[in-house]
Design goal:
Number of strands: 5
Structural class: alpha+beta
Helix content: 55-70%
Radius of gyration: 38 Å
Strand order of the largest sheet: 4-1-2-3-5
Largest sheet: 5 strands, mixed
Distance between the termini: 41 Å
Order of helices and strands: HHEEEHHEEH
Number of helices: 5
Length: about 240
């Protein structure tokens, strides 16, 4: 009986040791898998954070470029109010000189007709000269439109006369004027209006938000991973 009980107890202790050794092996494999997962995730998380930071930096640079170009021109423009202009007179007054590039260090003079357009703003009786946009106003304060200078002056003459005929047909045109009346000239179009500013700021804003979301998601994933680890340690 003693030998039989001894054999049974020996077999039981051996079985318990085997079960413990199998459990330890499974636990070692589990820990190794977790280490491998953490090791694999860390470079991916670093790359994601770098991507998010790169997107944020690029959006900041785009904001800076837009701020010194489009936004500055938009803010400096005094033609802020939109109204309706009635065309009173559209005539070609004289020929204006312009220069075009004919090669390396070669510039030649050509001529284009100066079209002057006078309008009444909002039927108020205020008569103003109409200009195409801010760029035209800076180039020539007298002419409505300044075509791209080229050798063929007849082609430029045709372009200007077509514009004159269209203005005679369309007596009422939308225009932009200075509400403070410091600028007597009114504009047919603005280089940078609300829609241009909105679309120019849309893409850097999306890039900034996307980069911030990537960083927030990575940090949230790391926090949840540490939280799960701590919960697992408490259960053990």
């Amino acid at each position: 009986m003693f030998f039989v009980a001894g054999a049974k107890s020996g077999g039981g202790s051996g079985g318990g040791g085997e079960r413990r050794s199998i459990y330890q092996k499974f636990r070692e494999v589990d820990l190794l898998d977790k280490k491998k997962t953490v090791t694999a995730l860390k470079p991916g998380e670093d790359r994601a954070i770098l991507l998010g930071l790169g997107m944020i930096l690029s959006s900041v640079m785009m904001y800076f470029v837009l701020g010194i170009t489009i936004l500055r021109s938009y803010a400096d423009s005094v033609w802020t109010e939109e109204g309706v202009c009635v065309v009173l007179n559209s005539t070609v007054t004289t020929d204006m000189n312009c220069s075009y590039n004919c090669g390396s260090d070669c510039w030649r003079v050509s001529k284009y007709p100066c079209l002057q357009v006078f309008v009444s703003v909002n039927n108020t009786g205020r008569i103003s000269r109409l200009s195409h946009n801010e760029e035209t106003q800076d180039i020539s304060s007298e002419c409505f439109y300044v075509p791209r200078c080229q050798k063929d002056s007849a082609a430029m003459h045709v372009i200007v006369m077509n514009i004159s005929e269209r203005l005679k047909v369309n007596q009422q045109v939308p225009c932009f004027y200075d509400p403070s009346e410091q600028q007597e000239t009114v504009l047919l179009t603005r280089l940078y209006d609300h829609s241009v500013v909105f679309h120019s700021l849309l893409w850097p804003s999306c890039m900034l938000i996307g980069g911030a979301l990537i960083i927030v998601m990575v940090k949230l994933t790391q926090y949840l991973s540490r939280l799960c680890e701590e919960i697992g340690k408490i259960k053990r």
